[in-house]
Fold each of these.
Amino acid sequence: MIWVMLGLLLATMLIGIPILLCIALIGFIGIAAEPGVVMPMFAQKSFAQLDSYTLLALPFFILAGALMTAGGMSQQLVDFSRVLVGHLRAGLAHASVVCAMILSGVSGSSTADASAIASVLIPTMKKNGYKAGFAAALIACAGTIGAIIPPSMTMVVYGAIAQVSIGGLFLGGILPGLLVGFFLMAVVKMYTYHPDYPELRVVHGSFDFRKVFSSLKSVWPALLGPLVIVGGILGGIFTATEAGVVACLYGFLVGYFYYRKIKLRDLKGIFVEAAITTTMVSAVIAISGAMGWLLAYMQFNDMAIAWVTTASQNPIVVLIVFSVVMVILGTFVDSLAILLVFAPVAVELCKRYGIDPIQMGLVMVICNQIGAVSPPTAPLLFVTTNIARTTFDDTTRHVWPFFFAECLALVVVIFVPGLSTWIPRYFLG
């Protein structure tokens, strides 16, 4: 019965039915067909999945990202990144990655980061001779850093389901997020030696400290945002959930009083946009609660753990096998759905093999984001492809070097647990 349900779920997704309807349909049919389970369990478990104080951070961080983007922070960070690394070979490509690393500390969403950076940089990259598919693939992969470096909505979802400290996950994502960024920049560097990409060898000007200082005068509020959010959590001033409220207030004050990009009449549109996004994400989380409970009731978790156990008793090998399964499934199934279904399995693996829950969380988040750039689903690739006005095949052709760079970063996080656990242990114990 379990494999029939999972097969139907995969089939409905592949034929183009929205992910929310797929999970709802299969979960509803599964509960109806299971003897001894009453139909009200579908509604009860869906509500219980959202009945979490931790998940209150989700709408606040979504709203904070919308306020900060509308307030002009994205444009300021892009300009600052160009000043920092624009003088290098493939300066615009490096700037997109640096901007993603900085912007990820503001928005908390990989989709928001990819959209903001692509809308600003891709037209400029194309004017400078960059291939549209290359630009779209790079910025889509750089956008994944938005869910790894704190704050992160994906971490909020995982932490709420797995009952793992959100603050610990936020702190644990700093070094792995930077590592992903550096690996992507290394791939860009290798591209500069490729004979088919002469545009990447063009150098524009040289590093000028005066320009950096001048840019800091306008960008400092955007750079201060991540420090306020993460610093407040580290200092015990507020919890991760309360940090979402602080981020909203900070984004509004900076956008309204400093950059003067937000008008009071704009707030209605910003709130509506954030509400729509929150509703879509929350609905998937709620429906996945019923589906996840049904899988647990049918002992899917025990089956999955038994299958992983047959591979090895070594925690590192277990993490590798678990990651490979998630990445492969991410090429066909929505990455958020995979995260929601496999989070309970991940919790049990941590208990049985002594894996640090924060390291497991970071592994799952990175796998989740790799799935977001893995064809044929690849939602981030679709976003940047549309902005670049190119074909999906063209973007896909360029994405694989960046895809493997992110996979390599995942392997490093698996083999070096300290990358994801050292900062949380140092500050939180």
Amino acid sequence: MAGKSGAIRKNLLTMARQYGTPLFILDHKRIRENYRTFKSNLPRVQCYYAVKANSNQEIIKTLFNEGSSFDVASYNEFMQIYEYIKHFEKDEKHLYIWDKIIFSNTIKDRDTLRKIKRYRPLVTFDNGDEIRKIKQHCSSAGLVLRLKVPDIGSQVEMSSKFGAEPGEAYELIRQASDLGLDVEGLSFHVGSQCINFDNFTAALEITSEIFHDARKKGHRLNIIDIGGGFPVPYDSQAPRFEKLAEVLNAEFDRLFPDDIEILAEPGRFMVATAATLVTEIIGKARRDGKIFYHINDGVYHSFSGVVFDHWMPNFNSFKQGKREVCAVVGPTCDSFDKVSLSVQLPVNLEIGDYLYTENIGAYSIASTTRFNGFDGAKIKHTHNR
């Protein structure tokens, strides 16, 4: 049987019976391992966890204790980090925010900018209107210009919504500087779950040209933010992160001086492999010749990544038996709530049996809803060292 070992499956069953289902099990040992893998393979890179991937407070606590920095998209995400530094002395607190938090959402509302002004935050931008808004409401900020770069083949593409055209980059840097704002550096994002490493190399080439041109013209840029997109091993076909790291390290040395800071914003990479979901079969029917297993979780809940993240879910059974192509659908009354129509599962599964799904830590419970009045999965944290 594919999936986890017998001992691990037994433990999942025990936990499901003890705590009920759907049960979302977060493995903090794996989160720590992922963080350390990232740091050891990219020693020049400061790691800013992208909170949007999974904003569970316990994940933030684990990564804070590991020494991670954080990429936030909103004031509420910022306050999740602030929880751990609110007791710091004023100068220490401001230094932490400046050095370890970036607002990577290129468009920020005025109220958020007013709230964070006193902290002198690092923020991204990609257009002239945002420059003027930052000047008016958060002139203390350090700015990072986000560039539009190739994202072909990434699971979630970004360039259609974010990023300044490279040809407009210097003019935007000049505009910000003319208004008295400090442009600290450049950023890009090659798209989430990027399996095309050429996207990274092309983006670094584009960024390098703009970086060196701006420096020659007197703008002291000192930050390069390479965003996220680092591949997760969802299956055996996914390229290895270690191979990408070799490419990136070589390009850093070739294209940029040693005196700059290099940032990255991994989200999926940190948490995707750190969670397993156990669901219960609540209904079974044969429709047009295909078995439909109705489970107590769906696309409006932990499987929201099927809709928002273009994720292909996996299902494993605890029972063995003759297998055929089945459908797995969610509990709501919406016909849209189909998790997958092509899952190889045993045909002898019954109501009350369990399924489990691996690598569901990213973009899952982060975007869950309470549609139809159904509660989301119970979350159980494990911290085995």
